[in-house]
Specification:
The protein is α+β, with helices and mostly antiparallel strands. The protein is built from nine helices and twelve strands. The protein folds into three domains: about 70 residues, Multidrug-efflux Transporter Regulator, Chain: A, Domain 2 (Orthogonal Bundle), CATH 1.10.1660.10; about 40 residues; about 130 residues, Alpha-Beta Barrel (Multidrug-efflux Transporter 1 Regulator Bmrr, Chain A), CATH 3.20.80. The chain is about 40% helix and about 25% strand. The longest helix is centred in the middle third of the chain and has 42 residues. It is elongated.
């Protein structure tokens, strides 16, 4: 075959399509090969055919159906074709901008996870830690704690605030679950707050702590409560479960039980 023509296989490779796609385009009259061998019926494409195929492929990335692409490319009026392609180019710019925005959010999330990963070192066993007084906001009791709720935990608190109150509040980027003898509730530690219903003050002092996974949480919590009773002679009326690493594949928690000391 002449140098200026490509077999259907070579043409498909050039435009990153399959040979079946090119056959389909031929059947519907979208892109017909410039030459068809009279005896073998082999299809052959020239450089202009490849330009048309590449254009169609690009337009499909804008979610345009083949029938609309076919209709436009059949225009006799070149100005209409140019105007259509200009609109497609604008859509491409918008799509690129949207993808760039999404990429920036992914990069921020990745950086946040890396920061948490490098800043968090799992502690072996049970340890004690002294905390200052902490003011927390409690959400409504929930029957089941879910990863989806922990992922977007701050909505539980901001949706309780009026527009005027939202400026008065800020929360640590630290999701948590407050459990007492009656219920389990999501909580957020306030870094700025005003006096409203739903706030609770956690006492300053020594807390028994342990790092855990979701699978080991209940077993380790029972150990902390037993130690609090046996060594500190206190029956804790609440416990805290804080998310120290959150990710798509794993969640790491720190349990905290007040000792009264």
């Amino acid at each position: 075959m002449e140098k200026n023509y490509f077999s259907i296989g070579d043409a498909a490779k050039q435009v990153h399509m399959t040979t079946e796609t090119l056959r389909h385009y031929d059947r519907i009259g979208l892109v017909k090969p410039s030459r068809v061998d009279a005896h073998s019926k082999y299809r052959y494409y020239n450089a202009e055919d490849l330009v048309r195929l590449n254009t169609i492929h690009a337009l499909q990335q804008m979610d345009l159906p083949l029938q609309e692409i076919k209709r436009v490319l059949e225009y006799d009026d070149l100005e209409k074709i140019i105007a259509f392609l200009e609109q497609a180019e604008q859509k491409a710019d918008e799509k690129i901008a949207a993808l760039q925005y999404s990429k920036s959010k992914i990069q921020l999330a990745r950086a946040d996870y890396e920061k948490k990963l490098h800043g968090w070192q799992a502690s072996e066993g049970i340890f004690t830690k002294k905390f200052p007084k902490r003011v927390i906001m409690l959400a409504e009791p929930v029957e089941k704690i879910t990863a989806a709720d922990l992922w977007s935990y701050q909505r539980h608190f901001y949706q309780r605030l009026s527009n005027e109150q939202k400026d008065q509040f800020a929360f640590e980027d630290l999701a948590g679950v407050y459990r007492d003898n009656f219920s389990a509730r999501y909580f957020a530690v306030c870094t700025r707050y005003a006096e409203i219903n739903g706030l609770k003050t956690l006492p300053a002092g020594i807390y028994l702590c342990a790092d855990c996974t979701e699978e080991s949480r209940q077993e380790i919590l029972e150990k902390l409560l037993d130690i609090a009773k046996e060594e500190y002679h206190i029956d804790p009326n609440f416990s805290l479960q804080l998310v120290v690493i959150s990710g798509i594949l794993q969640w790491k928690y720190q349990l905290q039980v007040y000792t009264g000391a």
